[in-house]
Amino acid sequence: MTEKTKKAGDSKTIVFLHPDLGIGGAERLVVDAAVGLQNRGHKVVIFTSHCDPKHCFDEARDGTLDVRVRGNTIVPPNLLSRFSILCSILRQLHLILQIYLSAELQSLSPDAFFVDQLSAGVPLLQLLSPRRDARVLFYCHFPDLLLAQGRQRWWKRAYRVPFDAWEQWSMSFADAIAVNSKFTKGVVGRTWPGLARRKDLQVVYPCVDTKGKEQNEKNGGEEDGGDDKPLWNGKKFLLSINRFERKKDIALAIRAFAGLEPSARKGVRLVVAGGYDPRVAENVGYHKELVELSESLGLRCMTAKTHVTALQVPDDVEVLFLHSVPNLLKATLLASARLLVYTPANEHFGIVPLEAMLAGVPVLAADTGGPTETVVEGVTGWLRSPSDVVAWTAVMDKVLNHLSEDELAALSKAGTARVKDNFGEAHMAQRLDDIVAQMLRAPRTWSWRPMAAALGVGTLGAVGFALAVLGRAVAVYS
In the record, which residues are listed under signal peptide (predicted)? Predict the structure, then answer.
C-alpha cells in the first residue's frame, strides 16, 4: 500500500498563495511543499501573480502541479522600478479578490491555505474563505522589514512604516506560523515579541531531492546524463555556489584561498559558481569586484558563461567564475568537488550545504545562521567565523593536503546520511501535514471582534496611502 493510498481517507484541499513562482530558494520550498503534500494524497492548487514557463521549476510547468496565475492584470510588479512592496501587496489582494469573485475559491472549498513571503492578504483571505473551519498556515522565510534595503534614508524609513506595521498585524491572523530554521525563529521572536508570545512558531526545514540520489545509487552510482571523464582531468577544486551578491561574501572564499601557501595551492582551483543576471546591477558590479580582488591577490582568474567554455579552462587558471550554471553542470561540480565553501553570514537557512552533503562533499560554512543547524562540526564539515580568514584557509589546507582518503570517505558518508535522515522531501511533507492537521483540530487563536475596527481603518488607510503614492509617482515621472 502506497503512502498516497494510506492518506486517501484524510485527503484535504490545500490552496497555496505565492507572489511570484520563479526560480529561487523560496520558490523551491513552495514547489517541494506542494509536491510533498500532493504525494500524501491531498489536492493542491497554487495561485500566483506570476509564473513564466521559461523561468520556473519543472514541476510548475510540466503538469505535476496545478498552477494558476491570477491577480496580474491591474497592478504591475513595480512602478518605474520603485514601490515594489506596495505593488506586491496590491497584487496579492487583487489575486484573492479575483478568485473569490470568480467563485474559483468557492468551488475548491479549501480545508487549509499555505501562504508565504507576503502576509498582507491573510486577513482578507480569512474573511472571504468559503469555509469557516478552514485554517491558514503562514510560512515566514524571514521578516520582510529586515530585508528592505536603503533604510538609512529618512524617507525610505517613513515609507516603510505602514508596511512594517501591516506585516506584523496581518501575520497575527494566521492560525499557525512556520519558519525555515531555529535561527529565523529567534529573529522573528526578537523582531515581533508580542506575536511570538501569541503564536507557537514551528520550524519546518526546507528539503532537498534525496530520491534522485537513491535512484542514482541503485543504478550503480553513475550521474544521469554525465560522462565518465573527470572535470578538468581530475584537477582538485574547491567550490563556492551562491548568487553574485555582496551579502553572500564570496570575497571571503577568494581571500582564504589566496592565503594558502603556493605549494599547497599548486594544481588546485577555486570554482565560484552561482546565480548571475546581467540585468541586475549588483550581479554585474560584484562579479567585477571579485575579479579585481582575485587579480590583486595574484590569482589568475577567468569567467566562463557557457557550459562548453567552463569545461575548456586552461590548467593554470586558479579562480574560475561560472555564471548561472545549469543543473547538470551543478550536479557534476558537486559530484567532483573536494570541499564546498559556503560564505554567507547569518544565512536564514542555506540549501546549498545540504545539496553538497547529499553529494558526499564536506562543507566549510560560517558559524552563524542556518548552517549551524545542518553542518555538524568535524563530522560533515566545519563551522568557522566569517571574520577569521586564516581559519578558513586552515580548513582548506587540511582538506586538500592533510586528510586521508579514509577520513574524506567518512565525512562524505556522514554528510549523505545526515541529509537523508533529516532533510528529505518526505520529512518536510510530513511535518507540514502534521501542522495542517493540528490547525484543523485546534480552535482559532484570534477573533474578529477586537480586530474588526482595525481591519476597516487599516484597509481604508492602505487604499488612501496607495492612491497618494500612485498620484505622487505620476506627478514626479510625468
Answer: none
- CA 151 – CA 143 distance, rounded (Å): 15
Whether residues 178 and 30 fall in one domain? yes
* Domain shared by 57 and 114, yes or no: yes
User: Would you say residue 225 lies in a domain?
Assistant: no
> Are 286 and 315 in the same domain?
yes
Place of cell 515579541: 193
Q: CB within 8 A of 195, min separation 6: which ones?
A: 168, 171, 172, 177, 188
Per-residue pLDDT reduced to its tens digit, 1-28: 344 444 444 899 999 999 999 887 889 9
Nearest to 134 by CA among 100, 169, 101: 100
Residue 194 lies in a domain: yes
- Tell me the average pLDDT of the chain: 87
Structural domains in the chain (count): 2
Determine the structural domain holding residue 24 and report its residue range.
9-207+427-477
Tens digits of residue pLDDT in 157-171: 676 778 888 888 899
474 — pLDDT class (breaks 50, 70, 90): very low
For residue 220, what pLDDT is reported? 56
Pairwise CA distance, residues 356 & 57, whole Å: 20
pLDDT, tens digit, for every residue of 165-197?
888 889 999 999 999 999 999 999 998 898 888
The pLDDT of 238-242, averaged and rounded, is 96
If you search the block for the grid coordinates 558537486, which residue do you land on? 334
| Integer Cα distance of 417 and 358 in angstroms | 8
Residues 442 and 410 occupy one common structural domain: no
Q: Is residue 443 part of a domain?
A: yes
Same domain, 145 and 172: yes
The whole-number average pLDDT for the span 207-213 is 81
Instruction: Answer yes or no: do 166 and 305 share one domain.
Output: no
Q: Please identify, among 377, 398, 423, the residue that sits at the C-terminal boundary of a domain.
A: 423
